[in-house]
Amino acid sequence: MVTFIVTPLDMSKPTPNPLLQLENQLCFPLYAASRLFTKAYQPLLQELELTYPQYLVLLLLWEHGELTVKELGERLLLDSGTLTPLLKRLEQRALVSRRRDPRDERSVVIGLLPAGQALQEKALCIPAALQTRLQLSPEEFEALRAQLKQLVAQLS
Amino acid sequence: MVTFIVTPLDMSKPTPNPLLQLENQLCFPLYAASRLFTKAYQPLLQELELTYPQYLVLLLLWEHGELTVKELGERLLLDSGTLTPLLKRLEQRALVSRRRDPRDERSVVIGLLPAGQALQEKALCIPAALQTRLQLSPEEFEALRAQLKQLVAQLS
DNA sequence: GTGAATCAAATTGCCCGCAATTAAATTTGA
DNA sequence: TCAAATTTAATTGCGGGCAATTTGATTCAC
Question: Which member of A31, B56, B76, B111 lies 3.0 to 4.6 Å from B66 by CB, making a disulfide possible if both were Cys?
């Protein structure tokens, strides 16, 4: 004698397809890690009164000096729809300058003003603070960085 | 007679500190990869008329059936400030239902409506399409996923 | 040299993401 | 029991991101 136990179809739990499970995908950990990272920066950046993308712009300007909006966009993978208002906010706080390139009036050159330059000193401690927070060995850190770089290359 | 040629201090290239270089950090590749990933989903999700975070919400509902706003927030690491308007948009399109839990009127239970349930079928091909796009070996994929999960755990 | 094509930035409009606050329900503990 | 603390969503306000369009400058092709 065999008894079949028939579980009724529960429409509130419809076909949990493993392909579509959050934890089996790359997308969600990436999305979550990126936002958590930004949040980890937040208290440090708050002291400089910078948002995370504003900080990225300043990193590039500290490293390269003047850059056009286009060059900033290429390096950060952001377009002028994002950068223009962001840069105007930095300009209003006298951290950066914005001027048309006289040799090509289409381009806008972004430069550092003294206050923006001065912020670099305050920012020096930030990478180390984050490193501590992450608790990754140098090998793990490097492996992850390399993999992400490869991913970025693959997708861009 | 000696002529000194004094190179003026070039304030446009100020002290490129390696610690502060974009490419030496984890934060930027993570930020860029996350946005590029979302962009890679975009054409696929456009056919479902979903944004990426809306898709994540539906993934959870397809997997778990009904969830409260709080539970969605815990799993996606998003707060009601993000979720409430997003869920209202899905409700307006009759993809999900929103109702107070009668046993605890503070909670709002989100459920799938038929149109939302039906979308799952159209979404089934999405993970495979991305997998193809990424061109990662199963080992690389798994390694990266594990490292990101660890990072998320470390930061949350 | 001139009209067409291209390019760079700005603008518009929409949707996140999140800090901070508010409102309402529930739990708690004296 | 009942006031205080806690919990859950909603709301507000602001700064990204990004697609799509517009404006103006430059380059290209003929």
Answer: B111
d(Cα B143, Cα B30) in Å, to the nearest integer? 15
Report yes or no on A36 lying in a domain.
no
Q: Is the CB of A67 under 7 A from strand C?
A: no
Q: Give a yes or no: residue B22 inside a domain.
A: no
Q: Which residue type occupies B42?
A: Q
CATH number at residue B97: 1.10.10.10
Q: What is the pLDDT of residues A10-51, one digit of tens each?
A: 444 556 677 777 878 899 999 999 999 999 999 999 999 999
**Tens digits of residue pLDDT in B76-124:** 999 999 999 999 999 999 999 999 999 999 999 999 999 999 999 999 9
For residue B55, report the phi and psi dihedrals to the nearest 5 degrees: -60, -40
Looking at the fold, whether B67 and B101 belong to one and the same domain comes out as: yes
Which residues constitute the domain of residue B54? 49-123
pTM as predicted: 0.89
Instruction: Kindly state whether residues A119 and A156 are assigned to the same domain.
Output: no
CB pair distance less than 8 Å for B140 and A148:
no
Pairing of strands B96-101, A104-112: unpaired
